[in-house]
Amino acid sequence: MFESLLTDTTGVSISMTGVLISIVVALIAGGLISFTYMKTYPKGGYSQNFAMTMIMLPVVVAIIIMLIGSDVARAFSLAGAFSIIRFRSAPGEPKDIAYVLFAMAAGLSVGVGVYAYALFFTAILCLTMYGLSKTHLGKTGSDKKQLIITVPEDLEYEEALKDVFEKFTSYYALKKVKTTALGSLYQLTYDVAMKGTSGEKAFIDELRCRNGNLNINLMLSPDSGE
């Protein structure tokens, strides 16, 4: 009855056995990806919702691919339907985007029926992601942070802050300047790499002396891997 229902409503001959096998394989692949995602983030640093999404995404993609089959018209209709969906989640890290594409590729492989290939490349890429995470490939000597500091409009901030940056940071770069408080203040955004975590308080204290004790925020950079 279920096989007849699927054939009549979609126009594509899909066996229930094939559907169940695809769902199970997609869940296994998604579970491996989700587990790797959690292991490649610092303890407590990952998103539970994202980890759950990594499990379900291969299943959803696999089901969509099975329903589309080789029907080009249905594929374009599906693309049009997805194009009107507005994703309101905050932009994630580049590594998160890689995991999304990874999960989609696993779902595509399962959807076209190459189960062994799907599990094989999922295992290989999971091991690769885990290995890259443990070797800290591309990690600099100190964590990059983002500094947001408010200064008066009459302060020559480039010269006033230069010696403080050279004293406490191994790297700094001005990324954005914007006016605030009706143009009476400037808000500066820097990328900085501290020479040592023990000097953060002294760094902020000296900046306060230069900017008239206005707002200062020192936080982990959004594109940091930690």
Please give a structural write-up:
It is a single chain. The chain is an alpha+beta fold and 226 residues long. The protein folds into 2 domains: 134 residues, no CATH class; 77 residues, 2-Layer Sandwich (Alpha-Beta Plaits), CATH 3.30.70.240. 57% of the residues lie in helices and 16% in strands. It is built from 8 helices and 4 strands; from the N terminus they run ααααααβαββαβ. Strands 2-3-1-4 form a 4-stranded antiparallel β-sheet, covered by helices on one side. The protein is elongated, with a radius of gyration of 25 Å.
Q: What would the keywords be for this entry?
A:
alpha+beta, Alpha-Beta Plaits, elongated, 226 residues
Summarize this entry quickly.
With 226 residues, the chain is α+β, with helices and mostly antiparallel strands.
Rg estimate, integer Å:
25 Å
Helix content: 55-70%
Task: Characterize the largest beta sheet: strand count, sense, and whether it forms a barrel.
Answer: 4 strands, antiparallel
Count the helices. How many?
8
In quaternary terms, these chains amount to single chain
Q: Please state roughly what percent of the residues sit in beta strands, choosing from under 5%, 5-15%, 15-25%, 25-35%, 35-45% or over 45%.
A: 15-25%
Instruction: State the total count of DSSP E strands.
Output: 4
Q: H/E series, N to C?
A: HHHHHHEHEEHE
Cα distance spanning the termini: 52 Å
Structural class: alpha+beta
* Largest beta sheet: strand ordering: 2-3-1-4
The chain-level mean pLDDT equals 81
Low-confidence stretches: none
> What is the overall silhouette?
elongated
Structural domain count = 2
